[in-house]
Amino acid sequence: MKKSIRLVLSIALVLSLMFTMLAACVESDNNRSVNDRLKEVTSVELVRLMGNGINLGNTMEACNSNNRIPNLEPEFYEMLWGNPVTTQEMITGMRNAGFSTLRIPVAWTNAMDFENGDFTINDAYLDRVAEIINYALNEDMFVIVNNHWDHGWWSMFGHPEQLWRDFARQMFISMWTQIALRYEHFDHRVVFEPSNEEWGNRFNDRTRFSPTGGTLTEDECYKLLTELSQVFVDLVRATGGNNANRFLLMKGYNTDVMMTVDERFILPSDTVENRLLLSVHYYTPWSYCGDTSGVGSWGRTTEVEEMNYLLGRLTKFTEKGFGVVLGEWGVLDNEGPDRLKFFTNFLDNSDLHGFAPILWDTGYDPVYGRLFDRRDTLTIVAPDILALFQSRDVRVRADMSVDEIIAAAQESMANSLRMAAERPETVLTADEAVAWIMFVDGHWEIQYSVGDVYRPEQITTGMIATDVEITGEGTYTVALDFTGTNAGFADGFEFTAVGIMNGEILFPGYYMVITELLINGVQATFAGTPYTTNDNPVTTRVNLFNHWVNDVPPEARVFGGDLSDASPIFLENYKLTHIETMSVTFDFIAP
User: pTM surpassing 0.85?
Assistant: First the structure.
């Protein structure tokens, strides 16, 4: 297998290099002025020039993982997830809506028969992506081109067998060598981004390419991310031409803010100065921002302060000379009045810190929502959001200085906090502890206070929660009642846990021993033993069903000490159950 891979790779590189040299001769004269304009711009300065951006989501990254057939016509994949073929008029509409950067997520393996050892990306797919890049360049937009989730092939990096880890690395090198050579002629408005959200814990994803999941520790995942980042930078620079000093957008760990500001995250070195950018994504809290309409409100003081705090942490990188791109963000389904408040404060933070926010959008659908109508009006369907982006267009603010932009952002953020203070919310003091059931149903439509911070206001309309104050050792019961929701029940669950806010602080080392767990009034049977743990130094929890935890963590504890049958998914037999009521009774026992 390895010999055939090397042969295919060498042929692909030679052909790509020949094409690139011919294309560069034709187009380099037209691009010289743009490159001259950007030659002296640092990455921190570039992100302010990039302004607000939008993703061309569910388009060139669309793929059919259950029945993968490579090398069909590019338009087949482009329309696979329900969007029309991209046009110049569509991209012009995005520019007129206030967006000056286009991010193009791509599934390159749609054009690659890698299962048979052939890493060649077919010319038709490369040409189609180039055509869309040119649509944006025609509007003088910046463009980000990445390799997206892409059938989940990234999971091979954590595969238990070294053969497949090596295969993934060879595939990555071949893929990006071809992309870099094919697009070398594009000027510095085009930015390369090596991956999406897969660089981090998702190296260990369970997919058909790694059926048992990966075996890397978190430290090893951080180390691998650093190595791949360096491979990517060195690879692109070695292709020469405009790639020798092209801006490159490096990935944060899981694209998560807190995991990226971790000291284990290390950006690669570069042969040129001030040309590396950093990308993270922002959907916090997921219960409001995510692919759901389950929690329809946002804008209380703690929520606004959380956004300001998390985005402010990223100045760690701008202070070191790395421009920050918020490569995905947004409120995907919620269309209530709080969406404008979220968007406004988010863009204010971006203006304050000098970040480039790239809105995630997958095309308007009358059922599922989203913002930009790619079929009819070719603009944002929500008038208030359209007005917001148009008011922040870099062309509209061309005469404003950076100091003036920052001052306006500070004033607007202060106003957001004033409005937030008028909204009631529950905030625990340092000496209070409360237990509750975190919950997400199988469709991400019904939710309650998901995460390690107790936020009872984040609740689906009609749900009734019974939470309880924890005062020390004793027996406690927490519950959820779904009968008042639109459906009258929760359609299974995607995640659920019992949490105790401030439990690790006020009652360190205590055990939560579940004595009764009723689903629809009937005692549930367990597939394994529940254990007490914590995801942070504050909140104690017992995971009832958390399929994102692959192994029992080292901080897990069980009363009596026997972890042999411990499980984070011991309610897996009820994952698809229609749940009207759910209650958990537990003994809280001192160590």
Answer: yes
Q: CA 342, 343, 349, 355 torsion: positive or negative?
A: positive
Q: How many residues does the chain have?
A: 591
Cβ neighbours of 7 (radius 10 Å)? 12
Cα 92 from Cα 135, distance rounded (Å): 8
Three-class SS of 417-428:
HHHHHCCCCCCC
Burial 67-105 (b: 16+ CB within 10 A, else e): eeebeeebeebbebeebeebeeebbbbbbebbbbbbbbb
Annotate 502-540 with b (16+ C-beta within 10 A) or e (fewer).
Answer: bbbebbeebbbbbeebebeeeebebeebbbbbbbeebbb
- DSSP β-ladder status, 142-146 and 190-193: parallel
Q: Give the C-alpha distances (Å, rounded to integers) separating 68 from 21, 33, 126, 177, 230.
A: 33, 43, 19, 23, 30
Place of tokens 């016509």: 73
pLDDT in tens, 20-77: 434 444 444 455 578 888 988 999 999 999 999 999 999 999 999 888 999 999 999 9
**3-class DSSP assignment, residue 429:** coil
The answer to whether 551 and 563 have CB atoms below 8 angstroms apart is: no
Q: Which residues partner with 498 through β-bridges?
A: 437, 542
In angstroms, the CA 491 to CA 486 distance is 12
State how far the Cα of 278 lies from the Cα of 367, in Å rounded to an integer: 34
Contact at 8 Å (CB) between 177 and 195? no
Residue 360: closest CA among 436, 474, 280, 250: 280
Reported as a single tens digit per residue, the pLDDT across 76-135 is 999 999 999 999 999 999 999 999 999 999 999 999 999 999 999 999 999 999 999 999
